């Protein structure tokens, strides 16, 4: 299985504060990867390290088998759309397409023109007069027309209204279905990821908490509800992700590959949002930590 991103012990520090630390993860090729976590978790830092906009303080990272931003050929293989959808207010839509063609050796001018026309973006319009959703779609067009092997999207819809978010995600889904490339998409809106992502990374407190294919993660995580019980009394193969207790009842989210036969428990499946929230509630000092490596 080829890997589009490999990080080993990766860390980035600003002064005394670690924005990312001990990040070890492999992202296989051919997936749409959702990178999710609370604000300040280190998502943008990880993506900027992958895009070569930052240098690591510790550890190593390779993207598509090479060093991020390791030369023009490497830069041409990676597209990056930042959170503020970086376009130039004083330039027209056509200006952006001409600029993209000059800067990117793999530029697909026909695809860029067709997509802009389909979106109803007039070539002569100044970008500063476009709506937020239109600017985001133009930024996505520029990223796609670069014909990257890996497209990195850093919360590209964070400031958009629900309709604009849906249209952006629909355009991304159509592009991934039509063209052969990998995507890493960060967001704190799990509902956006559920529709498009088939691989998930949860980043909390600047560390990777879990990573893997979404169907595999959902199949191996369960909610257990039953009489109050200490976590240490659970079987060793049930790794506790989160725990809540009342005087008489315990609710656990556990990760296990084995069937759960204990009749004391009511076992229910998790949604992707349930899974993410369970890891976001988890504390670094939890006794029974889930392994960080990618499974499945």
Automatic annotation (TrEMBL):
Annotated Pfam families: ABC_tran
One Gene Ontology molecular-function label: ATP hydrolysis activity
InterPro entries documented for this protein: AAA+_ATPase, ABC_transporter-like_ATP-bd, ABC_Transporter_VariousFunc, P-loop_NTPase
Claim: ATP-binding is one of the keywords in the record: yes
Domain named ABC transporter: residues: 5-230
Keyword set includes ATP-binding: yes
Keywords, sorted A to Z: ATP-binding, Nucleotide-binding, Transport
SUPFAM superfamilies: P-loop containing nucleoside triphosphate hydrolases
PANTHER family from the UniProt entry: ABC TRANSPORTER ATP-BINDING PROTEIN ALBC-RELATED
Name of the protein described by the UniProt record: ABC-2 type transport system ATP-binding protein
UniProt source species: Sphaerisporangium krabiense
């Amino acid at each position: 299985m080829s890997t589009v991103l490999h990080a080993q012990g990766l860390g980035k520090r600003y002064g005394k504060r670690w924005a990312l630390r001990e990040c070890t993860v492999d992202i296989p090729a051919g997936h749409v990867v959702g990178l999710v976590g609370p604000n300040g978790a280190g998502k943008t830092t990880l993506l900027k390290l992958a895009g070569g906009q930052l240098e690591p303080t510790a550890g190593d990272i390779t993207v598509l088998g090479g060093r991020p931003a390791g030369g023009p050929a490497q830069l041409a293989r990676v597209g990056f759309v930042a959170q503020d959808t970086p376009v130039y207010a004083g330039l027209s839509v056509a200006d952006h397409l001409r600029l993209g063609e000059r800067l990117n050796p793999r530029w697909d001018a026909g695809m860029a023109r067709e997509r802009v026309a389909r979106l109803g973006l007039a070539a002569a319009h100044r970008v500063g007069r476009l709506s937020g959703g239109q600017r985001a779609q133009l930024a996505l067009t520029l990223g796609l027309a670069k014909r990257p092997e890996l497209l990195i999207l850093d919360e590209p819809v964070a400031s958009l209204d629900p309709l604009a978010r849906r249209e952006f995600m629909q355009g991304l889904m159509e592009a991934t279905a039509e063209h052969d490339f990998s995507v890493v998409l960060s967001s704190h809106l799990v509902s956006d990821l559920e529709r498009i992502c088939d691989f998930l990374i949860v980043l909390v407190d600047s560390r990777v908490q879990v990573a893997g294919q979404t169907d595999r993660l959902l199949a191996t995580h369960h909610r257990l509800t039953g009489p109050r019980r200490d976590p240490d009394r659970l079987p060793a193969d049930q790794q506790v992700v989160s725990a809540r207790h009342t005087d008489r009842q315990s609710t656990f989210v556990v990760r296990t590959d084995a069937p759960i036969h204990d009749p004391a428990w009511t076992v229910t499946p998790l949604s992707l949002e349930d899974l993410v929230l369970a890891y976001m509630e988890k504390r670094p000092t939890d006794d029974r930590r889930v392994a960080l490596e990618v499974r499945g």
